[in-house]
Design brief:
The structure holds 2 protein chains of 2 kinds. Chain A is α/β, with parallel strands linked by helices. Chain A is built from 11 helices and 10 strands. The longest helix of chain A is centred in the middle third of the chain and has 20 residues. Chain B has one domain: Orthogonal Bundle (ABC transporter involved in vitamin B12 uptake, BtuC), CATH 1.10.3470. In chain B, the strands form 2 sheets. In chain B, strands 1-4 form a two-stranded antiparallel sheet. In chain B, strands 2-3 form a two-stranded antiparallel ribbon. In chain B, α1 runs antiparallel to α10. Classes of the chains: A alpha/beta, B mainly alpha. Chain A: InterPro entries: AAA+_ATPase (IPR003593), ABC_AA/LPS_Transport (IPR051120), ABC_transporter-like_ATP-bd (IPR003439), BCA_ABC_TP_C (IPR032823), P-loop_NTPase (IPR027417). Chain A: GO terms for molecular function: ATP binding; ATP hydrolysis activity.
Chain lengths: 277, 292
């Protein structure tokens, strides 16, 4: 499979690319007369962090909405381990192992932290409706294992001490971690992080960077964020969107030096800076 | 004094029925943010189902079980077939559809079962217990009414608080979109919510009917009282619905006893207006929002 970003990123000394876990090919989304995404392709590979950057309105969130099944693309396909994904329904994609955090976090206000994260583990539930309705022992065992998964995720992001609290009573950085824990409780193979660093201080951001790097041992990560330091430090590859199109793709170094990126993304500011030198 | 005791006891057993009906409304409100105005008509329909079976020679309990099972199926069917197409649209559309269902079920019942009054049996005696010399307004049937509502409330609370299925239903109630993102089959949760609500509604219908007359519109007043009870309880929590039901039952019983039975409906509406003006999120809003 040839994709725009694969040929460009491979440096002569680098080991061969792992086969993509998830690919979007030629994804186009139109809202009425507006083309939000125009022929966007991207391949997420195991053990890699793939950054998606671009100015506001470039289509980053729309792209995530396609990847998690909220928005159906007008054209293009998604592939999971090289098989086309049929029936792009959020619950189905979640069941396959795609998890996503939301910009607005989307925590359930009336559920405790522990319960919020427990819902995230749902894809590992083995028993149906009837057994939990009638409280069969099978359901109890199932529930124990889900709780263990949720506890592990809470532990991993360092919010295990907040389990009985309601999200509304917690400071924003803690809520963000709870949202991440909920995504991790699904033990995803592909994690989509939507602006994970927004609203975080410098310390929290450094910690987040380390956490995300650590996650690559288990999963592929695709990350949308505005904080260039974080993106450049954490990502193995970057895709740059502008007006719904891919304007550049490659390693952080390649993207940083790409003239199209400087024009589109850094815009006037970068040019003004360049003139001063 | 004896009068007050009688009004209180009568109010509690009526209140338990309003509580059950309010529970049914709350279940659907939590899941879909709509008030199901057809709840009473659906309950009336399943009560007629029970009556038909009982009149054909089956026992009261067979009819009772059939009505609850019928409620389960009817609730699921209504959600899948009638409500599904309007879900996700403006809530008003769905509410109008439930009003349409209300009229349709009532008309259908009149066609199928006749528009006359028919008496409905009670499984237990309707003679008040005697305390010393006095006969109080508390019958074996009242005990059954209160016990069955308590059982249903405990079962629902256990379902929501302690099971993974209940957790998914609560999550879907808070945010369908996020729940889908986490892999929850929200559609099934909605179907189950409607089915459970219809079972509880059917129970209320059977309890109201016991020892009374039924006709296609016999649930109409209960819809109003149950709705007031649900609003009083904040619409969100099963516990609030039950408390609201008991409060309404007592209040209406006192109004009926001391002021005159013609004022009961007026009193219910006055309570509704007062609650909406003073505590629009219900008497227990803060606690209720936490406890669900």
């Amino acid at each position: 499979m040839t994709l725009p970003d694969t040929s460009e990123t491979r440096s002569p000394s680098a080991p061969p690319d792992p086969a993509p876990l998830f690919t979007a090919e030629g994804v186009t989304v139109r809202f009425g007369g507006l083309t939000a995404l125009d022929d966007v392709s991207l391949a997420a590979r195991p053990r890699e962090v793939h950054g998606v950057i671009g100015p506001n309105g470039a289509g980053k969130t729309t792209f995530f909405n396609v990847c998690c099944g909220f928005v159906r693309p007008d054209q293009g396909t998604l592939r999971w381990r090289d098989e086309p994904v049929r029936g792009l329904h959020p619950a189905r994609l979640a069941g396959m192992g795609i998890a996503r955090t939301l910009q607005g976090l989307g925590l359930f206000a009336g559920l405790t932290v522990a319960e919020n994260v427990l819902v995230g583990a749902d894809r590992f539930r083995r028993t149906g409706f009837a057994s939990s309705l009638f409280a069969l022992p099978r359901a109890a065992a199932d529930e124990r294992s889900l709780r263990e998964r949720a506890d592990r995720a809470l532990e991993e992001v360092g919010v295990a001490s907040y389990t009985g609290r309601y999200p509304g009573s917690l400071p924003y950085p803690v809520r963000k971690r709870v949202a991440l824990a909920r995504a991790l409780a699904a033990d995803p193979e592909l994690l989509l992080l939507d602006e994970p660093a927004s609203g975080l201080g410098a310390d929290d951001m450094t910690e987040l960077g380390e956490l995300v790097r650590g996650l690559t041992e288990r999963m592929a990560v695709v990350l949308v964020d505005h904080h260039m330091d974080l993106v450049m430090a954490v990502c193995d590859r970057i895709t740059v969107l502008d007006f719904g199109r891919v304007v550049a793709a490659g390693s952080p170094a390649q993207v940083r030096d790409d003239q199209a990126v400087i024009d589109a993304y850094l815009g006037e500011e970068a040019r003004a800076g360049g003139d001063d030198d | 004094m004896q009068q007050f005791v009688n009004f209180t006891l009568g109010g509690l057993s009526q209140g338990a029925i309003y509580a059950a009906f309010a529970l049914a409304l709350v279940l659907i409100w939590r899941a879909t943010r709509i008030i199901n105005f057809a709840q009473g008509a659906m309950a009336m329909f399943t009560t007629y189902l029970a009556l038909t079976l009982i009149e054909s020679g089956l026992s009261y309990w067979a009819g009772f079980a059939a009505a609850l099972a019928g409620g389960l199926v009817l609730g699921a069917l209504v959600e899948r077939v009638v409500m599904r197409p309007v879900e996700g649209g403006p809530e008003l559309n769905a509410v109008i559809v439930t009003l349409g269902l209300f009229v349709a079920f009532q008309a259908l019942a009149a066609i199928l079962f006749g528009a006359t009054f028919q008496s409905f049996p009670a499984p237990f005696g309707l003679r008040g217990f005697t305390v010393g010399e006095m006969t109080i307004a508390f019958t074996p049937f009242s005990v059954f009414v209160i016990a069955s509502v308590v059982v249903v409330m405990l079962a629902l609370t256990a379902l929501f608080r302690f099971t993974d299925l209940g957790l998914r239903m609560r999550a879907s109630a808070f945010s369908q979109e996020v729940s889908r993102l986490l892999g929850v089959r929200v559609g099934r949760m909605l179907t189950l919510g409607w089915a459970l609500a219809a079972v509880v509604g059917s129970l209320a219908g059977l309890l109201i009917a016991g020892g009374n007359l039924v006709h296609p519109a016999y649930m109409d007043a209960v819809i109003v009282y149950g709705f007031v009870a649900a609003v009083l309880g904040g619409l969100e929590s099963p516990g609030g619905a039950v408390a609201g039901g008991l409060i309404i039952g007592l209040a209406l019983s006192y109004v009926s006893g001391y002021l005159g039975s013609e004022l009961v409906t007026l009193a219910a509406l006055a309570i509704l207006v007062a609650v909406l003006l003073v505590r629009p999120r219900g008497l227990f809003s803060r606690v209720a929002a936490r406890r669900v």
